[in-house]
Amino acid sequence: MALYAMGDLHLSLNSNKSMEVFGPAWENYTERIRASLSQLTAEDVLVLAGDTSWGMSLEESAEDFRFLEQFPCKKYLIKGNHDYWWSTAAKFRQFCEKQGFTTLELLHNNCFFYGDYAVCGTRGWFLEEEQKPHNAKVLNRELMRLETSLKAAGEKPILCFLHYPPLYQGYECPEILKLLDRYNVERCCYGHLHGPVIRRRIEGTCGKTAFSLISADYLGFVPKKICEI
């Protein structure tokens, strides 16, 4: 029984936005995802750290979720900047019930527990968003969501998952890093980075927290094992 994580699957089974146009790193990526997730069991848990489906609505994303549902592991989804299908937790539960999906759940304004760990997360914040006029409002909203998730952990050690990287070479989001430090987050995994910018990733410990990039193309479409019980 293990906890795994991977971000940025960018599934496109019903939306005609295949990532294969971005070159060899994405070649046959859906089948590569199928092959790796087929190795997980019903006892495993998988955190999907944003940009899961290109669908513009829950209905348009249904085939992508059906693809994920075939794998028996429990899956917790975090919002990414391209998850246009994203809805409220209640609407997502209703959608899953209607479709017969039983392994999918949102990690949003909450946390869940895996063994002795609390698993927390939210979308986060990123440099590219700073040019938007509503930047302060969005940042504050993400900070509140992250703190709500971290508070729900209680006294358990925390594993945190974000879509946006809270830091990489030449950039950091001090507000998020302060929260990670305040709540003594042991590990933070993040996605979003692709292509040449992957070279600027931060891997390893900074302050109290160990950081890891988990973008699917960086991982070769094989989910990263975070811990095992």
Could you describe the 3D structure shown?
The chain has 229 residues and is an alpha/beta fold. The chain has five helices and 13 strands.
What are its keywords?
229 residues, alpha/beta, 6-stranded mixed beta sheet, 5-stranded mixed beta sheet, 5 helices, 24% helix, globular
SSE string, helices as H and strands as E: EHEHEHEEEHEEEHEEEE
Q: Name the average pLDDT.
A: 93
Low-pLDDT stretches? none
- Counting copies of identical and different chains, the oligomeric state is single chain
- Distance between the amino and carboxyl termini: 6 Å
Strand order of the largest sheet: 5-6-7-10-12-11
Number of strands: 13
How many distinct helices?
Answer: 5
Please outline the helices and strands.
Elements: E1 2-6, H1 29-37, E2 45-49, H2 62-69, E3 74-78, H3 89-99, E4 104-106, E5 111-114, E6 117-122, H4 135-151, E7 158-162, E8 167-168, E9 171-172, H5 174-182, E10 187-190, E11 204-206, E12 209-213, E13 224-228
Parallel strand pairs: 1-2, 2-3, 3-4, 6-7, 7-10, 10-12
Antiparallel strand pairs: 1-13, 5-6, 8-9, 11-12
Brief account:
This protein is of the alpha/beta class and 229 residues long. Helices cover 24% and strands 24% of the residues. The chain has five helices and 13 strands.
